[in-house]
Amino acid sequence: MNDNATPPSDAGSAVSLDHGHVEGTGERLPAHFENPGLPPHQPRWSDVDEGAAKRAERQVLTFFLISILGTLLFVFSYFAFSIDQLIFLPWFGHISILHLGLGMGMALSLLGIGIGAVHWAKTLMPDTETVEERHPLRSSDEARRGLVDTLVEGNKTSQLGRRPMIGILGGTAIGLFAVPPVLQAVGGLSPEGMPGGELHHTFWQRGMRLMRDPEMTPIKATDVTLGSAFHILPEHIDASLEQLEQLGYVTAQERQSGDFQHDQHLGYLERKAKACVLLMRLQPEDLKVEKSREWGYYGIVAYNKICTHAGCPVGLYEQQTHHLLCPCHQSTFDVTQDCKVIFGPAKRPLPQLKITVDDEGYLIADQGFAEPVGPSFWGIHR
């Protein structure tokens, strides 16, 4: 810093380079910048033509009404349809009517409110430009009274008094828009609702062989050595509903009920996402929980590999410690304690698949999962 630098001078006088000048320019700082002013105000058609204002009002009301109808469509779809009711759409294939209704309802609700509010502001609300000089944080009493007067005047010029239906439908649209999030928070995460309810069911059925993933070959108990781990899927996971009935896994009554989870249109990836299993073999005496020993086969145990925290695949098996690790948030499950959570944000153990062997020595499911798989939700938290 140059101690001999001259302080800033008054308007029009030269200042030192240490006060913001570019070296060699010789520029001088003005006392203040001239106000460039505002361009002349251009009135809108709705400002000068009452017919145009009426059309703009009807358009705003239409958008708010669309928003209300969208919210009602969301609520109706939530209660009227289930996830396994499908509709075929060109280019998209089979889509759940529930998901289609929820998505379309939410989209219309958001678009109606957004476009209606913007159109209202652009065509009917005052658009005159104003300039307010900066002032101390604590306004004078006169300025405060002026603010109140401005708000009152703004309420008048917003034309809510002359066009009350805008306020009525706009307020209704915004109020109803709060319903979908409440439904999702209260009902959508309940054990019997969506999406928690479908986590109770997977593709596994009694008698299905355990198949290596991705080879899809059956595995015998003798193939599972100490310390080994296999990624497993259920047999016939790519079969249709009719094929499952022919194989004896589905009854005609279940197939016709419409509630059976193995819908013939259910995608392979969706089935796989919930039914994937990790198979390991430990010394039987290392299993500290009686249930895990009874549900296993001579130290061979099978657990769902979807983390109960956020649904990431638990695929890291530590042979020496018998720990399963989720790579996303480091939730750690102890296989010797029935996959109890010993570290991380997960709140409940991984569900165990009860297994046995068939007459040929192949590992098979003795039953499906007895508890929901995947992330925890309301009512299922431990």
TrEMBL record:
Keyword terms of this UniProt record: 2Fe-2S, Cell membrane, Disulfide bond, Electron transport, Iron, Iron-sulfur, Membrane, Metal-binding, Oxidoreductase, Respiratory chain, Transmembrane, Transmembrane helix, Transport
Annotated Gene3D superfamilies: Rieske [2Fe-2S] iron-sulphur domain
GO function terms (MF aspect): 2 iron, 2 sulfur cluster binding; metal ion binding; monooxygenase activity; oxidoreductase activity, acting on paired donors, with incorporation or reduction of molecular oxygen
Domain Rieske: 300-364
Membrane topology: Multi-pass membrane protein
Location(s), subcellular: Cell membrane
A Pfam match: Rieske
Residue ranges crossing the lipid bilayer per the database entry: 60-79, 91-118, 165-183
UniProt main location, coarse: membrane
GO cellular component: plasma membrane
Function field: Iron-sulfur subunit of the cytochrome bc1 complex, an essential component of the respiratory electron transport chain required for ATP synthesis. The bc1 complex catalyzes the oxidation of menaquinol and the reduction of cytochrome c in the respiratory chain. The bc1 complex operates through a Q-cycle mechanism that couples electron transfer to generation of the proton gradient that drives ATP synthesis.
Entry's family note: Belongs to the Rieske iron-sulfur protein family.
Name listed for the protein in its UniProt record: Cytochrome bc1 complex Rieske iron-sulfur subunit
Classification of source organism: Bacteria, Bacillati, Actinomycetota, Actinomycetes, Micrococcales
Designated gene of the protein: qcrA
